[in-house]
Write a structure and sequence with these properties.
Elements (H helix, E strand, L loop, with lengths): L16 H5 L1 H16 L11 H4 L3 H8 L3 E4 L4 H11 L3 H4 L9 E6 L2 E6 L7 H6 L3 H4 L3
Antiparallel strand pairs: 1-2, 2-3
Helix pairs in contact: 2-4
C-alpha cells in the first residue's frame, strides 16, 4: 500500500487465513488492517470461502468495513452469507450461482454490478495470469 501521498512509503502485508483462525493473531491482524486504512493504505484480502473469513467476530469487522467486494461463483452457504451481509437480491445472486470463470458480482459502496469477462486465452497476459493448474505448467 501507499501510506498517504508519500510514494516513498510502500509496504506489502500478506495475511494468511491461518493467522485469522487463532483469536490472538486474528485480533492482531484486524488491528494491522485498521491501521493500514487509517494511514491511507488499501488493504486487500482474498478468500476461497467467506464463511471461513466470517467465523471470527474480529475478522467480520474487516468485511463489514470493506467498500469493495468482488465475488465469483459461490457455494450455497457462502451465497446466503453474502446476500444477507451485503443486501444482495436473489436476482443479483444468480450471477454467482453455478457460473463460469470470469462471471460474478462487484459490490462497491451500495452498488451491486454484475460482470462477465471473457479474457482471451491466446495471449501472453493470460498465460502469465492464469491460476488453472493444467495451464500453469504449459508456460
Amino acid at each position: 500500500f501507499r501510506a498517504g501521498e508519500n510514494p516513498e512509503i510502500t509496504s506489502k502485508d500478506y495475511l494468511s487465513l491461518f493467522l485469522l483462525k487463532e483469536e490472538q493473531t486474528a485480533a492482531y491482524s484486524v488491528e494491522i488492517w485498521k491501521r493500514f486504512r487509517k494511514w491511507g493504505g488499501i488493504p486487500t484480502a482474498i478468500t476461497q470461502n467467506v464463511k471461513d473469513l466470517l467465523a471470527s467476530r474480529e475478522v467480520e469487522n474487516i468485511f463489514e468495513n470493506s467498500d469493495f467486494v468482488l465475488m465469483l461463483n459461490q457455494a450455497a452457504g457462502d451465497r446466503a452469507i453474502l446476500a444477507k451481509q451485503l443486501n444482495i437480491s436473489p436476482q443479483q445472486m444468480k450471477y454467482v450461482t453455478h457460473t463460469e470463470a470470469g462471471e460474478g458480482l462487484i459490490f462497491y459502496g451500495n452498488v451491486v454490478l454484475p460482470f462477465v469477462d471473457r479474457f482471451p486465452k491466446d495471449t501472453e497476459l493470460y498465460r502469465v495470469m492464469t491460476t488453472k493448474p493444467e495451464e500453469v505448467g504449459e508456460a
